[in-house]
Design a protein that fits this description.
With 323 residues, this protein is α/β, with parallel strands linked by helices. The chain is built from 10 helices and 17 strands.
Length: 323
């Protein structure tokens, strides 16, 4: 099988990977497209000490499963593999199952290969007409939606988003649909230009300049920069008693003056994965369009080079895993 393999040191394109064998309850999936996200690159830095096939954003076709009605279906899937037997799962908190594995991130081979397996219960059948490339963005859009699901806040509130990557782009899309006024702090002029073209009402600021004295504090801040410095920047611009949604994950530890959180009584909420069904609906209706942020559709062989690029200037790539 062709695919990308990370041995703990190097991302390599290989043609000799063993094809996964599904177990009872699982589906064997032919992966069509996979998204490259910042988490995949952090894995190359040592995040979660993962080894194996990376990748967790995907759209594919079911080849084999226990339920014949699923065979041939176009699907994506929840990346958290829970036991569904423990007290945590009994409460419906599958994403926090203490024995869970995570697709392409923790103890479960991912989707940057020709084939992958997932429990059939994790799959979402996709509507006809949904662009295959759009399908690779369902998981990150679900993660963006989690911000307004885990702790809802009023559409009237102004929100500061820190970071100008694809996740921030999707977050701004969700917030704009709700009617929230959004300010974004970013680093890259080319990326921020895309925000401005897609969301003309957004207020854009360079990280070099901050947001100005007249609008320096916000009741809601979303930190999605993917860098350790993003959290401190968020604390610089949040109102006392404000809510800070933390989205960034990265290799290494975060050093922050937590006194600022205590003194200003900031509510910090970590948010990870989110609801797939509304993400699929938004993409199917064209209400959120990720394509302006796609740098290119690349091959698996090219993906190995992209995943090995730790320069820090990241663009969004979609990998064509099979034709």
């Amino acid at each position: 099988m062709k695919g990308i393999h990370f041995d703990g040191t190097t991302m390599r394109y290989r043609t000799d990977l063993p094809e996964p064998v599904r177990t009872a309850g699982e589906a064997l999936i032919r992966v069509r497209y996979a998204g490259v996200c910042r988490t995949d690159r952090e894995i190359a830095r040592g995040y979660m000490r993962f080894t194996g096939i990376p990748g967790h954003e995907f759209i594919g076709t079911v080849v084999e499963t226990d339920d014949p009605s699923l065979v041939g279906a176009s699907v994506t899937g929840d990346i958290n593999l829970a036991c569904h037997d423990c007290p945590t799962c009994a409460q419906g908190r599958y994403h926090h199952c203490p024995t869970r594995t995570t697709l392409g991130i923790f103890r479960k081979d991912g989707v940057m290969a020709e084939y992958a397996t997932l429990p059939a219960r994790n799959l979402y059948v996709l509507p006809e007409g949904l662009s295959p490339v759009h399908g690779a963005f369902i998981e990150p859009l679900a993660a963006a939606l989690e911000i307004v699901s885990v702790r809802p806040f009023a559409p009237e509130l102004s929100v500061l988003v820190i970071g100008d990557g694809i996740l921030s782009y999707l977050i701004v899309g969700v917030l704009s649909l709700r009617g929230n006024a959004v300010t974004l702090i970013g680093k890259h002029d080319d990326k921020m230009r895309i925000f401005g073209e897609r969301y003309p009402r957004i207020s854009l600021r360079s990280h070099r300049d901050g947001v100005g004295d007249d609008r320096s504090r916000f009741p809601v801040v979303v930190e999605a920069s993917g860098t350790p410095g993003g959290f401190s920047l968020a604390l610089d611009h949040i109102e006392p008693l404000g809510t800070l949604f933390a989205k960034s994950t990265f290799a290494g530890a975060l050093t922050v003056d937590f006194n600022r959180v205590v003194v200003d009584e900031i509510t910090v909420i970590g948010t990870r994965c989110g609801p797939f069904a509304p993400a699929i609906e938004l993409l199917a209706q064209g209400l959120v369009d990720p394509l302006p942020f796609v740098e290119a559709v690349i091959s698996l062989e090219e993906a190995a080079r992209v995943l090995s690029d730790l320069s820090g200037t990241y663009k969004k790539y979609v990998v064509e895993c099979t034709r």
